[in-house]
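Homework help board

Subject: predicted structure for assignment chain

Our instructor gave us this sequence and asked us to write out the predicted structure in token form, then describe one feature. I got the tokens but I'm not sure how to describe them. Can anyone check?
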Amino acid sequence: MIEVFELKSGNNTIKGIMDIPDGKGIFPCIILSHGLVSSKESSKYIALSEAFRRVNIATCRFDYHGCGESSGKIEDTTLTIRLDNLNTVTEFVFKHGAIDKDRIGLLGSSFGGVTSIIKAARDKRIKCVSFWATPYKLEKREDEDISGIKFNDEIFRDFSKYNILSEANGVSCALGIHGDSDDVVPYEEGIEIFNHMREPKRFELIEGADHIFSDFAHRQRVIELSVRWFMHFFFK
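My token output:
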């Protein structure tokens, strides 16, 4: 069952989709947290929803501020704004009648991985998390945009307010995945985040994979790893 939703987060309208398996009862759910310039319609997130549905796990995928169908200008986005978006969406999921509030996890990639780690560290209702290609630094380089977008300086100032490695100390039940050919976020950053987390945890370095796991075999591998990780904690 596909359910479209719309929520208010600050001054913005956040639009998303609940993808709930067929059948009666309540289901575990993974909230999917996309990257800086991605959206809920990314082929990666659609494939994740389909994979989780096959094992009776619901997903919630949504557009962050300035992305996809959600309102706001992407140039103005910050980590604080996105945390507010994620908080709003998470409360919606916890109150959803088809979702088991004791079995909710987060999966985020890149900037969405950072957001997921902070959320998991601060909200102990989150059972487990997976972070893909995730940085702990965001540094401005002169005369350089990000994926063709000239972000306002506030995104860098705001990011510097957060100590991602310190936040990672409060996270467990975490699966980290990174490609060793990631030329956007060095895989060493993902390993450093992982090293600060608590057990149980696991890290997978995918040989030859880029930042977005664009190769079909790499993408299938990281989806499979993530599905198995969440199944372990949801159905054990």
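Reply (TA_rk): Your tokens look well-formed. For the description, you could write something like this. The two ends are 25 Å apart (CA to CA). That's the kind of observation they're looking for.
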